[in-house]
Every structure is written in structure tokens, then in C-alpha cells.
Amino acid sequence: MSILKNLPQRKDEQYPSMIIAGAREHGEQPHELANKIFSEMRGDFRYKEFVLGCLNCGECTTGCPAARFYDFSPREMLQVAMSDDPDVLLDAMQEKIWACCQCYTCNMRCRFGNDIAGIISVMRELAVRNGLESAKEVLKPASRSLLKVMTHGTQVSPDMIQPDFFIDWDPKAVSKTGDLIALRKAIPIDVLQVTDSSWEVSMQTALELAQIYEESGVLDMLRSLDPDLVEMIVDIISDWKDEFEEMKEKFGI
Amino acid sequence: MICLASPRILVIGGGPAGLSASIDLFEAGADVVLVEKEDVLGGTPKKLHYSLIAPDLKPVEEVLDPLIRQVESSAVTKKLGTVVSAIENGNGHVNVTFTSNGGKEEAVFDAVILATGFTHWDPHKKYEYGYGVYPDVIDFKDFEKMLSDDNLARPSNGKMPARIGWLLCVGSRDRQVGKFYCCRVGCAVSIKQAMEVKKKHPEIDTYIYYMDIRTYGFWEDQLYWKAMEDLNVKFIRGRIGAISKGDEGSLVAMAEDTILQRPSEVPFDMLVLTTGMEASQGTVEMAKLLGLEMEEHGFVRPLEADSLPVHTTVENVFVAGTATGPKAIPDAITEGSAAAIKAFNYVRRSRGKKATGRSMKKDARAYAE
Q1: Is residue A178 part of a domain?
Q2: Would residue A81 count as lying in a domain?
Q3: Which end of chain A has fewer CB atoms < 10 Å from its terminal CB, N or C?
Q4: Terminal-to-terminal C-alpha distance of chain A
Q5: What is the Cα Rg of chain A in Å?
Q6: Is the pLDDT of residue A186 over 80?
Q7: Same domain, yes or no: B90 and B208
Q8: 3-state DSSP percent of chain A in helix, strand and coil, to 5
Q9: Of residues B174, B240, B258, nearest to A56 (C-beta)
Q10: For residue B178, which of B327, B297, B326 has the smallest C-alpha distance?
């Protein structure tokens, strides 16, 4: 106790500003949020399975493509996951966890058998669930993709390859793609020969997916990040539901 | 004394442990048969032409040849180029069938000492280190032969290397390849190899990539400190995770320097993989023939790892050396002697009990008490 007494006390003002911004929006004090996220991560059934221990050999970081370009290290992320300090966890969730490209090379390398990419994705999930500012920032450019996936059941459509949407892509990405319609015709599966959608998903499948999003809490999770997007999704889905009901009546299904 | 004939004891394996057991049994007056599948005695250290033996940096010949000569000059029955092909163990008698080029032969023994040793782990299984792809990535057992032959040259072009790196724990302490344990000697042997290189060629740069340096006991100052202080061997705390081709045929080792927390890329002329130990095929086969229990790492389970290390789960079978797990040569020699006296006393005691009509059905735990 006597040693601890002499240590400088950490004040709330010393927290990185982003944590405070993310926390105040939810009316929570930073350490409360940190504690909440920390206990959520430790309570997650995947934690025990993914985080085993660490010999600090650095092979994960050596193989990590993100570590070559960013101040990011899978070894550090695993140490964060193993740390008993909730503030350390919340701090890493402000920026670092989003540098991971989820290629799972670290898992392939890890001689201890940790699921490092897995625990990073758990951290990301917690960042989304808790509406962290960093998660909003990261998901902002992906909102159109999310809208497409969640309403049409398909992902990126060819005409989305626009410099405006993907500024960090290869500057020649657009010219390389050339005549999209011609290129699409070369794909040997049924892609409808259009460029504004990937392939057609039946309305029933799309509605079933929507039900899954709703019941599994994905929509609620998204609502904390982008309420407008969720509203759009819900509108489109309810239109489709009506349309589907009409169709059922019309054809007597 | 009740026993009239000498105890008949079979020693399987002619490495350091088997040699030491044979010598002690013979000196105690036992009737010893030493069976070795190779045509020479000395076991893996001799077969693979190890160079100097830590910590005194004595040539392997100086360490093992006196033992081999003692066995050769004694009346120990030596069966070289011979394997044990069948064993029937019951009623205190072990009926053994030997197979060699000369055909089959049978003999009866009172006890068996298993000293069948280990084998080096095959680094092909860790594909990211490029063993078998890059000729200059070599196994440390082959590097040992290179040093022993005084023929230090890059396998790719035969030239003298300017920078050599060692990567410790290849096939040890690795859950991915199912080898959870430490090989106990890899750190010491690798540092010893670097010292050997540095003593002969001070101009060669030597780097050792490690997770932990485990130079137990006196090896700490005799090897680890000495290598740093006197010979300028460099240590990087981090593992090589990828190897790629660099300029002029060099190999670029990529690693994270976990102390400086930054990526490290060093071009090497040669990279040496310090491979772990696993139970030899002979150990696995003999344990099966003798009905021994194996422990979770794939080695023979001693009856009690702490207090009865040379007893096995079968009362008239004893074990010595690396058949029960990774060990250094001096430890294997010590265990050979320990197994010898335990086996010898077991036979004497059991014969005494037989003569006085007492129960033979006591396990080795009781004999040891």
C-alpha cells in the first residue's frame, strides 16, 4: 500500500480526448466505459478460446501486413487483450484495432495457438456495440456497402468502383476496370449483366436475411453508430415486406 | 548369496546412456548384451558427427570414445547392426528375438534397459523457414557436422559465409506442430556453435534469435555470457517469421525485435535452424514391444518422474537417456549408470524372493522403497 500511495494519481483529463468524446456522448465516465467494455470482453465465451498465453516471440507481428504500414502489432493487441487494465483496452480500441486487415496470418504463425485476429474482431464488435467514435469513423465510408448488403443481400456492385468512394485505392483502379459491362459478361456465373448490382437475390431470401439482422441484434448494434442508415434499411425492408405480402395474395401462396 | 548365475541384462541402444549402462553392469558382474541397430557405437552424437560438446568444448570423440573403448574391450556381448524384432515378457523372463543380416536369434534376459534415444525434429514441417527451399537454410545438426569437418561453407556456392544467424526453438515450444516442450540443449548448442565459429573466424557476424535463453546452471556464464563478452555473438530477442531472398544470394530474415518493438530485417549468408528433440523411431517401437506407457510428449513415461526416473511402468524394464525426454549427453551418461544399478539390484532381489518363495508380484515402487 505504501508504494502505491506514492504513485501519481491518474486524472480523467489525462485520458486521450477521443475516449472522452466517445464516452460523454453516452453520458458515461471514461473509466466506467472502459470497465464495461473490459468485463464484456472477458465475459465473452470466445475470450477463453482465443486468448491462451504469449511467449512474446513476435512471429505474428513479423508476418503481419498491417504492421508494415501502421503503428500496429498483433503481439501488442494480444498483450492488450491479456492486460488487466481496462484503460489499456479502451485505448487500443480507439484506433489500433482498426488497422488489422483480418488476414489471419498471425493465427497461422502463432506457436501458442492464440486466435489473435479473432480477439481483435471481438474488440471491434465491442467498439461497435458500445458506439465508440472510432467505430463510427471507420464504418462511415462503408455505409453504402452496408445498405446494399442488408437490403439486397449482395455486396459491392461494379459501378461502386469510383474514385470518390475508394480514395485510398489504386489510382488506376477505375481505368483498369475499363468497360464494366463487357467485363461482366466474361464472368461465367449468372450476374444479370448489369453493373448496379452483383447478382439477384430472391425477395424471400432478402427478407429472411433482414429477419436475421433484426433478431440477432445487428440492427440495434448499427443503430448506435448510424441511426440514419438503419432507418433507411428498415424503410426499404418494410416496403419489400408489403410488396412480398401483396405478391403472396396475388398468386395465392 | 542365493543367485548363482549372473543377472542377464539386455541394453537396447549404444548411445551415451546405453554405453554407460553397459559398462556399469559389466563391472558389477552382470551378463550384458548391448544391441545397436547402427554398425557403430556412440549413438546420435557419433552418427551425426557432432563437433564440440558443451560446456568444456571438448570434441565428441574425447567425450564418448573412452566409453566406446571400454565397452569394446570388455566382455559385453555387442550386437551391432542388429534390431530387436520381438519381445515376450512374462514370469520374470524376457524372451528377445534379434534380427540382423545374419538372420534371427533368440535369447532370454532377466531385465531390459531401454536407451533408444531421440531424433532431431524435421524442420521441413515449418515451411515458413524455407528449409529445403533455400539451400543456405540448414539444420543445426548438419551445421554441427560442418564444424566437425572444419568445412564452413555456404551450401549454395561453397563460399565462406560473412554472417550467420541461428533461429532457436524450431520444433520446440510450438503448439502448432504438437511439440509443447523445450529441448533443453538447443540454446546451449547454438551458442556453442556460434562460439566455435567466432573462435576460428572472428570476422564472421553471428546473430542468435531467441525467445528465452535457457543455458541452465553453469552454462550461463560458460556459454551465454562468454559468447557475448569474449566473442561478440549478438542476440536478438524475437523470432524470424519469414525468410526471403536478398541481394547477392543472401537470405533476408524478417523478425520483430521484441525488446526494441520494431521490425528487424537482416541479410544472412546462412541461417541455422535449432531443431528440437523428439522420441526416436526406435524408442517408439521398443516401447510398443515392451508394453511401456508413453507420456503426453511422446516419450517413455518413467514410473515416477521425480523419484523413480529410470523405472518404467513394466517392472523389469528400465530406461535411460533421451528415451524419457530431452537431455544433455552428461545427463544421459548419468542415467545409464542409474538404470544399470536399478536393473542389477532388481534382478538380484527378485531372484532372492523367488528362492525364498515370496511373492514376485510387487511393482517397482515397492522395490525402490
Answers
A1: yes
A2: yes
A3: N
A4: 74
A5: 22
A6: no
A7: no
A8: 65, 0, 35
A9: B258
A10: B297
- Establish if B214 belongs to a structural domain: yes
Q: Do B241 and A63 touch (CB under 8 A)?
A: yes
How many beta carbons lie within 10 A of that of residue B152, not counting itself?
A: 17
Which cell numbers in the block locate residue B51? 563437433
Q: Do A110 and B176 touch (CB under 8 A)?
A: yes
pLDDT-based confidence at residue A218 (cuts at 50, 70, 90): confident
User: pTM for this one?
Assistant: 0.82
- Tell me the pLDDT tens digit for each residue of B354-368: 666 554 445 555 555
* Rounded Cα–Cα distance for residues A83 and B54 (Å): 40
Q: State chain A's mean pLDDT as an integer.
A: 81
- The whole-angstrom distance between A62's CA and the closest CA on chain B is 5
Structural domain containing residue A157: 141-251
Distance CA B86, CA B79 (A): 15
pLDDT digits (tens, 9 = 90+) for B182-198: 999 999 999 999 999 99
Residue-range definition of the domain harbouring residue B111: 8-119+278-368
List own/partner pairs for B262-267 with CB under 8 A and 24 or more apart.
B263/A61, B263/A62, B263/A67, B263/A68, B264/B236, B264/B238, B266/B163, B266/B165, B266/B207, B266/B236, B267/B163
Q: What is the ipTM of this complex?
A: 0.84
Pick the last residue of a domain from B275, B292, B307: B275
* Secondary structure, 3-state, A167-193: CCCCCCHHHHHCCHHHHHHCCCCCCCC
Question: How far, CA to CA in Å, does A165 sit from each of A145, A149, A161?
Answer: 10, 16, 7
Optimal mutation site among A49, A50, A57, A68, interface B, most CBs of chain B within 10 A: A57
**Residues comprising chain A, all counted:** 253
Residue B167 has pLDDT above 50, yes or no: yes
